[in-house]
Design brief:
Two copies of one chain form a homodimer. Chain A has 251 residues and is α/β, with parallel strands linked by helices. Helices cover 41% and strands 16% of the residues of chain A. Chain A is built from eight helices and eight strands; from the N terminus they run E-H-E-E-E-H-E-E-E-H-E-H-H-H-H-H.
C-alpha cells in the first residue's frame, strides 16, 4: 500500500484526493490545505492539516499547487530525502527543493470542478531523477490509470503547449460557434453532434487526413462569403488566420 | 415510400446514397454521376445515369454537388414543377432554378469518404418555399435522423460559419498539437483522451463555463513560457491571438 500526502486544494488536488480515496492500493494519509474548509467535504478532518511543517510520513508527497508556488511550498517542507513530486505540465522538475528526491506526476487532462473525471483513461506523464523513484511513482500511476508514460521535462513542456492548442483553443472555437448561434437564435445543440464527430474522427484518421472545409479545399467563394458574414472583427481575424494556416498546411 | 433521385458523386452524395439504400421508407430510384465509375460500388448499374436530361420520376431530387455548380445543374433539369433541393450549408435556396419547387436539405456534419457516418444523430436543416414541400422533405429527413430542424437561409449560413469554427478550426488545433508532438518524439495518442474530454465537456457545460488553461486564468508566466517555447512563427501568432481572444472573452 502506497502512502500519499496531497498538498493543495485546487482542481487537480481535489480530483486526485477523490481518486486516491477510491483506490485500494493507495492510502491518502494526509491532505494539506492552507484553508481546510475548502476541502472539508473530501476527507475527514483528522486527515486535513493546515500546517506545512508537520506533515505525516508518506512514500510520496504530491504538490498540486499553482506553478509559481511549487518552489516556495517545497522549500517549506521540514523533512529531507523523501520523494516529492509536482503535478505541473510546464514547471521544471528542478522547481522542487533539492533537499528531497524530486519527481513529476503530471495528469494530462482538463479539470473542471463541476465535472467528475474518469482517471483510468487519463495519461500520466512521469519524470524522476532516480530510477528507484520512477518505480514507486509508476506504481502509484498504474493504480489509477491505464495510460502511463515516461516523459522528460522538455517533452512535458511541449505536451503542455500542445494541450493548450487541442483543448483550450478548441474549446474557444466552440465558444465562438456558440456565440454565432446565439446571435442568430439557433440552439447551440445543433452543433454538438458535429463537435463529437470531429473529436472522434482523429481516433482513426490523423488530423491532417481528417481536415475538411472551405480552407482545405481552397473554396474561395465560401471563404469570402463567411468573412463578409462575420460581423465581429475578432472573429473575422481568427477566421482569416486559421484559414491561411490550414491552406499553407504549415502546421 | 418516398422516391428519391440523388445528383452528385462527392462525399455528401455517396453518404446519402448509402443511408437511403439502408432505409426502408426511401426508394433511391436513380443516382446521377457525371462519371458513373466513381459510384459503381454503391448501387447497381441500372440505377446509375450520366445523362442529366433523362432523370427518372421521383418525389425529391437532391442536388449534392459543389456550391458553385448548383445553379447550373438545376438549370439543366428537363422537368418542371418538381421538388428539387440542394444540400449546401452556404448556398441560398434561390440558387436552384425556379422552374421547379425549391428546397434545402442540409446535413450538418463533417463527411470523410473513409469514415462511415451514423446518420441518426446528424442534424438536418430543412428549408422550403412551400408548406406542402416542407412536409415531404421532413418525412425524408425523419426517416434517417432524429435531429431535424427548420432553418431559414440566414440561420443556415450562420450555422455554416459556426461549423467552420467548431469543426474545421478545432481539427486544425489538433493538427498543430500533432505537429508539436512529432517535433518532440511524443506519440500524439497521449493527447487523444484530452481531446475527447474537451469535446464531451460541452455536453454538460457551456463552452464559456468549460474554458480552462493559462489564457483563462491569466497565467502570464505560463503564456510567456509557451510563446518562448514555440519555434514556428505561425504557431506563435495563433497562440497569441487566441490567448488574447479568450482573455477578452469577447467571443
Amino acid at each position: 500500500m502506497l502512502k500519499v500526502v496531497v498538498i493543495g486544494s485546487g482542481n487537480v488536488a481535489q480530483q486526485l484526493v477523490q481518486v486516491f480515496e477510491d483506490t485500494a492500493q493507495v492510502e491518502l494519509v494526509q491532505l494539506y490545505a492552507r484553508n481546510p474548509e475548502k476541502v472539508a467535504h473530501l476527507v475527514p478532518a483528522n486527515r486535513i492539516t493546515s500546517s506545512i511543517i508537520n506533515l505525516a510520513e508518506a512514500d510520496i508527497y504530491i504538490i498540486a499547487v499553482a506553478d509559481d508556488a511549487i518552489a516556495e511550498v517545497s522549500s517549506q517542507l521540514s523533512f529531507t530525502g523523501r520523494l516529492v513530486v509536482h503535478t505541473s505540465g510546464s514547471a521544471a522538475i528542478k522547481q522542487i527543493d533539492n533537499r528531497n528526491r524530486r519527481g513529476v506526476f503530471y495528469p494530462l487532462q482538463t479539470f473542471s470542478k463541476s465535472k467528475k473525471i474518469d482517471f483510468s483513461t487519463i495519461p500520466f506523464c512521469l519524470e524522476t531523477e532516480r530510477e528507484e523513484d520512477y518505480a514507486i511513482l509508476r506504481q502509484l500511476a498504474d493504480s489509477i490509470s491505464k495510460n502511463v508514460y515516461r516523459i522528460n521535462t522538455t517533452q512535458r513542456q511541449s505536451l503542455h503547449v500542445a494541450a493548450v492548442f487541442v483543448s483550450n483553443f478548441s474549446n474557444h472555437m466552440y465558444a465562438i460557434g456558440n456565440k454565432i448561434c446565439d446571435e442568430h437564435n439557433i440552439p447551440f445543440d445543433i452543433l454538438k453532434p458535429l463537435i463529437t464527430e470531429t473529436a472522434d474522427k482523429i481516433k482513426i484518421l490523423s488530423p491532417l487526413q481528417a481536415q475538411t472545409g472551405p480552407a482545405k479545399r481552397n473554396d474561395r467563394s465560401t471563404i469570402e462569403k463567411h468573412l463578409d458574414f462575420l460581423e465581429d472583427e475578432n472573429h473575422k481575424k481568427i477566421y482569416a488566420i486559421l484559414t491561411k494556416s490550414i491552406q499553407e498546411a504549415n502546421v
